[in-house]
């Protein structure tokens, strides 16, 4: 059942935690930072949370005005969840929390989600060129676009990508840290590239700019 617990504290920090302080709530927000998501996508991104728990968090966040539910037009005709304008104001807070958490030891057998890697790419890139990429991670497709000084990520198919990348979140994360390993990753099948491999090299090296 959704929680209605409150700290009963007038401090604005406590009042904020009344809204997003429940377990998994901020991770639900994290999953929506890159755009609207279907329930199944949010659920798959949080394998440690039950379907009922994810439903409760979404319902609570919707009730508080952080998340809104809407129906996509045909042919999709699917229900998706998206952050409201107020919900989007959580983005710098969530990203700052992630930066703060870099010193926390990584749990053994930890999951690494698609959104986490793409947020890392978006936040760390310093692109100098204009390009479009189709990035397929864990059977989901994302459009990544670069232009001088800006990188954007959104769910869905791009129109005419310069290159297509198929890999796992762990491999992409490793290549963002060590771009020189791209050819080896292609050779051993950890990543598949269609189109301009040099464009992919530039994407991976954006952090070095």
Essential attributes:
209 residues; alpha+beta; 5-stranded mixed β-sheet; 41% helix; globular
Structure report:
With 209 residues, this protein is an alpha+beta fold. It contains ten helices and eight strands. The chain has helices at residues 12-20, 25-32, 39-45, 51-63, 85-88, 91-100, 114-124, 169-177, 182-187, 197-204; strands spanning 37-38, 67-71, 79-83, 131-137, 140-147, 150-155, 163-167, 191-195. The strands form two sheets. Strands 6-5-4-7-8 form a five-stranded mixed sheet. Strand 5 and strand 6 form a beta hairpin. Helix 7 (114-124) packs parallel to helix 8. The longest helix has 13 residues, at 51-63. The N and C termini lie far apart (48 Å). The model has no long low-confidence stretch (mean pLDDT 92).
Strand content: 15-25%
**Gross geometry:** globular
Helix and strand run: HHEHHEEHHHEEEEHHEH
User: Alpha-carbon distance between the termini?
Assistant: 48 Å
In DSSP terms (H or I, runs of 4 or more residues), the helix count works out at 10
Main sheet overview: 5 strands, mixed
Query: What's the β-strand tally?
Result: 8
Which structural class do the helices and strands define?
Answer: alpha+beta
* Proportion of helical residues: 40-55%
Low-confidence stretches: none
Strand order of the biggest β-sheet: 6-5-4-7-8
Using the CA coordinates, give the radius of gyration: 18 Å
Mean pLDDT: 92
Give the secondary structure arrangement, pairings included:
Blueprint: H1 12-20, H2 25-32, E1 37-38, H3 39-45, H4 51-63, E2 67-71, E3 79-83, H5 85-88, H6 91-100, H7 114-124, E4 131-137, E5 140-147, E6 150-155, E7 163-167, H8 169-177, H9 182-187, E8 191-195, H10 197-204
Parallel strand pairs: 4-7
Antiparallel strand pairs: 1-3, 2-3, 4-5, 5-6, 7-8
Helix pairs in contact: 7-8
């Amino acid at each position: 059942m959704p929680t209605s617990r409150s700290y009963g504290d007038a401090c604005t920090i406590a009042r904020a935690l009344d809204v997003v302080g429940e377990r998994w709530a901020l991770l639900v927000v994290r999953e929506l930072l890159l755009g609207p998501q279907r329930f199944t996508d949010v659920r798959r991104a949080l394998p440690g949370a039950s379907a009922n728990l994810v439903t409760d968090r979404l319902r609570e966040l919707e009730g508080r005005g952080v998340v809104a539910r809407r129906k996509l037009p045909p042919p999709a005709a699917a229900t998706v969840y998206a952050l409201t304008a107020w919900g989007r104001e959580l983005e710098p807070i969530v990203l700052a929390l992630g930066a703060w958490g870099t010193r926390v030891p990584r749990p053994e057998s930890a999951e690494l989600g698609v959104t986490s890697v793409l947020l890392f790419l978006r936040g760390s890139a310093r692109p100098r060129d204009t390009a479009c990429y189709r990035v397929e991670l864990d059977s989901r497709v994302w459009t990544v676009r670069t232009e001088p000084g800006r990188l954007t990520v959104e769910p869905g198919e791009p129109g005419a990508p310069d290159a297509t990348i198929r890999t796992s979140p762990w491999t992409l994360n490793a290549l963002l840290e060590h771009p020189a390993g791209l050819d080896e990753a292609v050779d051993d099948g950890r990543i598949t590239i269609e189109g301009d491999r040099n464009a992919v090299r530039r994407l991976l090296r954006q952090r070095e700019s």
